[in-house]
Amino acid sequence: QDPLLLLKALQPLWTMKKMKKLQEEIRRGFAGLEDPLAGLLDMLEGSSDWKGKGHSLGYCITTELQLWIKEHPAVQQSGIKLKKLQARVLSILAECPTNLLDPLISIYQLHTADRNYLLEHVTHLYHKGNYKEAAILSIRLKLQPDQDVEKMCTPLLLQDKTNLVEDYVREYPELQSKLLQILDTWCEPGFNIRDITRQYQGLSRCKPDKLNRKMLSKLVFRLLGLFHVDPALCPNAINQRHLRTLNYLFYKRFVEKTMTQENWRDHIQSTVGENRWLQGHLIQLLIKYCDLPTAARWAQCCDVPKEMLPQEVADELQKLHIQEREEEAVRTDGHEESKKKDYYQLPIPRANIHFLQTWEETQQCWEKVLRPGQVVGIDMEWKPSFGMVGKPPVSLLQMALKDEVFLLDLPKLLEQAETEGEKEKLPHFIQLLYSDAAITKLGYGMSGDLSSLAATCSALKDTDKRARGVVDLLQVDKQKVDALEQSCEDKSSRQQEKGLSLMVQHVLGKPLDKTEQLSNWEKRPLREEQILYAASDAYCLLEIYEKICKDPASFGLSSDLTESLLGKPSINPMATKQLHKQEVPSPSGQQCKGSSKETSCSSAPISPKDFKVVCDNMLQGLGRYLRCLGVDVQILENEDDHRKAAEIARQEGRVILTSGLPYQTLQSQVAEGRCFSVNCSEKAKEQALQVLKHFNVQVSLADIFSRCQ
């Protein structure tokens, strides 16, 4: 009849881990107690082993009582007696680990307790400084709708407990919007997080430095994507992201010099728009990178009020003649001829490039592309996202045949199909094309293209799983480039190129002109330079493939290509990204022969100790998680420049793990495949799984915690 004596009798069984005997004695003990529910509280109040993390005797007794009550419902209490028990258990909940919360809430029916009483208890915990415990209990008791989200979440954010904040608002869209609005006010220019921390003097493990404007903006955009909230709710965060885009565009144009004036101008105009705050920053950047006349012309173009302009720009504006004139001098014929000498040129007439905007125009394209034995070079273009939420839709689908190239205006075609009630038109054609093993589809990094295509049209999300006859030249390039880089004497000029452009240079003698790569592909009409660039990107795949067919040995492939993959299970480029060698016709009509060796579905497995990475500073959680798994990890600090990752990667032979805008810059500074973009909206565990799968890292039990943490 004494719960404490029962507890004393159970302790030796727990120590000796005689679990079956222990469970029997617990059940026998509860059957002998006059009030098992009060008895459990006596035992918990009379011991402290249950306060630590993990399993304990207290946890074992509690969960066993929970099961026992289901078999003996008559022992449950009600009325005044239950209220007294609920008052006692609430004081225990403040100290117990999370694994005990749900069993105790269930046993003592706290979901039926007076809501005001529960809120008072949580408020008491909060005022004692137990912010984490107050939040966890609120989540378990579903008290969030009756609480102040700013009051509850602010101290958690200051302690870098963003995962708990996400859990707190996860089931409540209204609270998600309120939280994002609060965070957006913290992104305002001039806001100082120290003003908030002063209200929480003595807050343990306070990390206000992690809430600088850049980190806050990243957090806001991650939560916008996670909760599918309209980004317009967070104007300050969007302004900060646009400002970083502006800085990136100036870097590409004036430091790297890899963006044309036309592309740069398009992106500057679409980024700044009529936003006065961004226009002010644009003028400052123009003064820094260009000159006063250029800043004045942009001020005139954007109709910036004179009172917003620095005095020297306002003075320059008065000197300018009121007319629009081009930034750059008109390119001379000599410059165009020089360009032709330096870059890959399409070998087909301009008249054979067809820009298709209606389904009637596409009919001839379908008939030619879907012929059995056809070889098709496929590429896609979309507007650069510059780190904004979501994957941008495909704006242009290019399909190259031996004598002509078709450019499909996907936004127009999809709009027409929807108007005519025939949404299945595009998915039907794409699925026919990719599922037909008799048609060879050439791509370069085709998995990324298919992923973007699926984001554009949801009916195409499983296209990669049904794909047959797909040849991804990226995999051939990975073998070929390494060998060429070791033997090529003129490394300095070649390192300016990368990706497909570098492969075109190796195989066809001249690189692609990539100045249109970061074009605004949504803007219509497309410029002539964009049309030629898009056609070249798709057509060069045909010429590369023909070279492979003629001399497979020079690409590291066997000369005996008789073993084909025709008729084998579907190819999943998302998972494998491998060149599947098969007997198919080349663009010139000759037969290509595949390798006699079976191609594995992924690269050779490697162990974590042989996998060396450097994590960018927005992926510190991922870095710590990978280190737990035995991976050799270096992690950038918050104040480090992203480009430090490239220096470390080159010096120590590491793979860069990054996300968002920095990926655009970093991937150009290391070899192909040595920079990987991670989804920032996922948690560290999911990110780690993504990385391990991509690089085929096999983790064993011995690897766990094999490195110093």
UniProtKB/TrEMBL annotation:
UniProt keyword list: Exonuclease, Hydrolase, Nuclease
CDD domains: mut-7_like_exo (cd06146)
Signal peptide as annotated in the record: none
Biological process per Gene Ontology, one example term: nucleobase-containing compound metabolic process
Residues that span the membrane, as ranges: none
Comp. bias intervals (Polar residues): 585-604
MF terms (GO), sorted A to Z: 3'-5' exonuclease activity; nucleic acid binding
UniProt region (Disordered), positions on chain: 582-604
Organism superkingdom: Eukaryota
InterPro entries, A to Z: 3'-5'_exonuclease_dom, Exonuclease_MUT-7-like, Mut-7_DEDDy_dom, Mut7-C_RNAse_dom, RNaseH-like_sf, RNaseH_sf
Residues annotated as domain 3'-5' exonuclease: 353-553
Protein name as it appears in the record: MUT7 Exonuclease
